[in-house]
Amino acid sequence: MDNQSELIKEVFARFGTAYFESEVLHRSLCNVYALASFDKPESITRPRIDEKFSYSYSLTLGQVIKEAKHLFPDDIQQLLDLALSKRNYLAHHFWFEQNHLMFDEKGLLQLQQELIEFTDFFDSLDNKITEFFRPIRKKFGLSDEILQEAYERLLKGEKDEPLISQRALKKQERIVRVWDVEVANGLIAQIFETDDGNLWQLCDVGLGWSKFEKSESNWKLNENIQKYLPANINPRPLISEAWNYEFHLTKDALLWVRPGKSEKSYTWGVRTSHNS
């Protein structure tokens, strides 16, 4: 009976390990999905990367697989489908279907071996994802040390929280004010205020998160844009490349955004029928 008690403890421990490895795989997929959507490091701002990671971490394993699967070759896509099936089985069916094996030593050893195979599968697939991710993270300057620190925080049950969590963008936003705000080292960013008081800033694909929660008394209105507001805009317009898009304002004005000449910069302007 003592040996059987130890085997029961081992089975529970093996189940925890298998499920944990599925969580590690889940986090790896979130990292790939968040970063792979950027075409180059210059497209990234801290609020934008917070936005991407916050969204990716909000997805279930099934959701992130669905959204990220196209990034991988066929062999990994098939393994991802299998991983989702195995994870769902562990989460929803394993104990219900296998509890009859908990009452003798032979059954416990069978469960133990099955859980070891689950663990090895998730770990092996995570290694494949890590290898696929290597050139991507190298491109964005993510070292092995940074990822190891994140892995250790995951082991401790810690979560990486974004600086500020904003609501999701609507399909149409009503912009009531645009401010010129110094964000760092003399860099002036355009901060867009919606009619519900949320603040957004320009990013690689349109409007994105901002680190600001409310406007401040020293902010200056951008008069060049303000005279064409309020306006209802599509905050994520169709684009052909990063930092290259337009917003339709009132009075048939267009606010255009283009990549800047220097790294991590952009340029913008307002085009009307009078100056087109």
Structural descriptors:
276 residues; 9 strands; 6-stranded antiparallel sheet; 18% strand; alpha+beta; 3-stranded antiparallel sheet; 8 helices
Structure description:
This protein has eight helices and nine strands. With 276 residues, it is an alpha+beta fold. A hairpin with a 4-residue loop joins strand 2 and strand 3 (199-203). The protein is elongated, with a radius of gyration of 24 Å. It starts with a helix and ends in a 5-residue tail after the last strand.
Summarize the structure.
By secondary structure, the protein is of the alpha+beta class. It has eight helices and nine strands. The model has no long low-confidence stretch (mean pLDDT 86).
Oligomer: single chain
Number of strands: 9
What is the radius of gyration computed over CA atoms, rounded to a whole number of angstroms? 24 Å
Report the span from N to C terminus.
Answer: 86 Å
Please outline the helices and strands.
Elements: H1 2-36, H2 46-58, H3 61-68, H4 74-92, H5 94-98, H6 105-139, H7 144-155, E1 173-184, E2 187-194, E3 199-203, E4 206-209, E5 220-221, H8 223-226, E6 231-233, E7 245-248, E8 254-259, E9 266-271
